[in-house]
Design a protein that fits this description.
homodimer, 227 residues, alpha+beta, six-stranded antiparallel barrel, 10 strands
Chain lengths: 227, 227
Amino acid sequence: MNAFVPTARSKVKRLSERGNYDRQAVYAVVDAGLVAHVGYTIDGQPYVTPTVHWRHGDTLFWHGSAASRMLQTVAGCVPACVTVTHIDGVVLARSGFHSSINYRSAMCFGRAEAIRDPKAKEQALEAFVERLTPGRWAELRPVAAQELKGTLVVGMTIEEASVKTRSGGPKDDAEDYAMPIWAGVVPLRLTADAPVPDTKLNPGVMLPDSVAAMVAALKHPPGRSPC
Amino acid sequence: MNAFVPTARSKVKRLSERGNYDRQAVYAVVDAGLVAHVGYTIDGQPYVTPTVHWRHGDTLFWHGSAASRMLQTVAGCVPACVTVTHIDGVVLARSGFHSSINYRSAMCFGRAEAIRDPKAKEQALEAFVERLTPGRWAELRPVAAQELKGTLVVGMTIEEASVKTRSGGPKDDAEDYAMPIWAGVVPLRLTADAPVPDTKLNPGVMLPDSVAAMVAALKHPPGRSPC
């Protein structure tokens, strides 16, 4: 099963040639993102909450305070939607109609549940830290039992998912190319600036490889489409 | 009325000191964003769809194909949630527990409806183009009636909204400061690279001020919090 099987829920309707259900395509967009937007419903009212996420196989994880309304809600195994979006550029065509955005977006559907076993919870948090900053878990002060208790980690098996992307330059109407209008793409990317050490940093503590690796990865985000 | 009045729906529960309901704070986060995530529900299933947005007063606008499921759904005056998020940095504390993200996020609630009057629709689209690229509307090939017909523009009056932000360095437990662990912030920002002209650009057409202004704004996004 190398692709998710779309139903009416995840099938890309508009510009269906931009849609992709391959697992690897979904994973690539999800993994290249730092933040996901989690959709859930309380009493008929939809909510969209941003959160950092990570993935293992077909399971998406996110976490936060055990008192979080978002986490308490989604942990109840209710239908959820987790969307990860990258903005790769503004496409400036010769008409407003054909102007567009270059993007990669993954929409994942499923039901989340709380990871209750403390050992599994701690392993999930370790996977999160290691995904962002490989090697940092061992550098950090160990997790206290009280902290683990106050943290809610949820996992959502992706039942179905789709990726939608646009890349490349403007596609104008044939007769518009003759017009003296500038057209092209302004590439956009999330970029990291130089790390800013804490003002209370102990003298002599150097930037570790774990953090340097994250900065390097964010300077050249994996899976970014060329414009 | 300089602030939105929060109800249980928009009141920031967790870390309530990070919450803000001032109109100007909401506007600043919304306007600094290129993309919003729109939450809506179909048959009990929440969906989160990314889209470009713009704002006039308390009204949020977004648009797309008249065939879009998202737009057809939200235009039905159903409860919606529109969230705009900026990721300003990764906060690396001396413990995993206090590690965090610097962010600004606005969550807006309301019900959208279609802008049906062609004149109002065109004016809304002009406002969108002018927000991103001031002066470009006049440069573009005019909108065709057929294009306007195929475009669905929705407007959502913000009934209530909240902004949540985190900025600054790590806040560690007092006893952890003595540990020889690197701590600090890796600042992040969405940045524009040099515009890439369309390969079919007419010779002699120069980059207009409208596009240059967008590139400059994205290089120094307004409202970005210092780290």
